[in-house]
Every structure is written in C-alpha cells, then in structure tokens.
Amino acid sequence: MIWTFLIYCFIVTVTPGPTNIIILSTVQNVGVRPAMVFTYGSICGFGILLMSSAMLNVFFAQTVPHVMIYIQVIGTMYLLYLAYQVYNMSVPDQTQSHPISSFGQGVLLQIVNPKAVLFTLTLFPSFVLPYNDSIFILSVTVITVTLIGFISFLIWVSFGAVFKELLRKYHRITNLMMAIFLMYAATMIWF
Q1: Residue pLDDT tens, the chain, 191 long
Q2: Total domains present in the chain
Q3: In this structure, is residue 12 part of a structural domain?
Q4: pTM
Q5: Nearest to 50 by CA among 127, 117, 150, 133
Q6: What residue numbers bound the domain in which 68 lies?
Q7: What gap in Å lies between CA 10 and CA 33, rounded to an integer?
Q8: Any domain includes 14
C-alpha cells in the first residue's frame, strides 16, 4: 500500500499541471533563479494545502459540494488568466521581470490550483485516514508528500534549464503549447 501511495503522489505531482507549466515558462523566459523563487512559493502553498486538508478533512468532506463550485470557478478564471499571460510573453532580456515568477504567485497558484486542491482533498480520505488518523501519521504524510512535490517541481526546473535555449528559440510555439495546456487544465476542472 505504501508504494502505491508514493507512486500515486509522484505521478500526480510530476505530470503537467498549472504549476509545472508556469515553472517551465519561468525558466524559459527569465531563468532558473526566478523559477526557484516561484517553486519555493509553490511548495509552501502545496504544504499549506496538505496541512489544511489533513486538519480539516472532516469539515471539507461535509461541505465539498458547496466549496467545490467556488474552487472550480476561481481556478478556471485563474488558469485562463495564466494562459493569457504565458501566451503573450515575449523572450525578455535579463533585466525584465516576469509577471508570474514571484514567491507570492507560487503560493497563490497552489491555493487556487484545482489539480492541487483536488489532490490534497482526496489524498487523506483515500490513502491515510482509512488506516490511521494519528497526528504523527498525518504530519509524516504532509512532510513526505510535500517533499515529493518539491522533487517533482525541481524536475521541471531542471528540464527547463537543460532545454532553455531550445525553448527560447521557439518561444512562440512553446508559449502557445503551454497556454493550450493551461486552457486544457481549466476546462478539465469541469469534467
């Protein structure tokens, strides 16, 4: 069961989603350092979501039908905004700032990221709470999954750093593809 849980967590966090796409875009457009700042914010937001889900799982389970529609609307609007931002980015010189590469944007993206919210809301009732509900196990789970998420984000930073010049050379196509993936993520919220 533990291996299934770990593999599930890795697959969910490493597959393309809004955060991974923005990390790749940030590396492509302004470099690794700003992408790492965004990544640190994203992992903090992910940890906040995991802690909230662990502590408030019973509350969320009772109110999910009411809360989920708001998460879907906010998440859809934010993902479409990010798609627009990514599509319209040009290859900046190194002195330009990136509109979505800050620590705060990383935290915000995770908190409204439907993929992350749904993952954290379903993780505990599916894999942890049926077997153990101790504070220690919940804490270990939060730390473990946060570390798995961080490793997944670092994979995307590394991918962007390795292929940065290629991505910059074909930035219009790359930006278009990333914007399409973000729009796809926005539509998948509703299915």
Answers
A1: 688 888 888 888 887 788 988 898 888 888 899 999 999 999 999 999 999 988 877 565 556 657 667 766 776 787 788 788 778 876 555 445 555 678 999 999 898 888 888 888 778 877 887 788 788 999 999 999 999 999 999 999 999 889 878 877 887 887 888 788 778 777 776 76
A2: 1
A3: no
A4: 0.73
A5: 117
A6: 21-91+98-188
A7: 24
A8: no
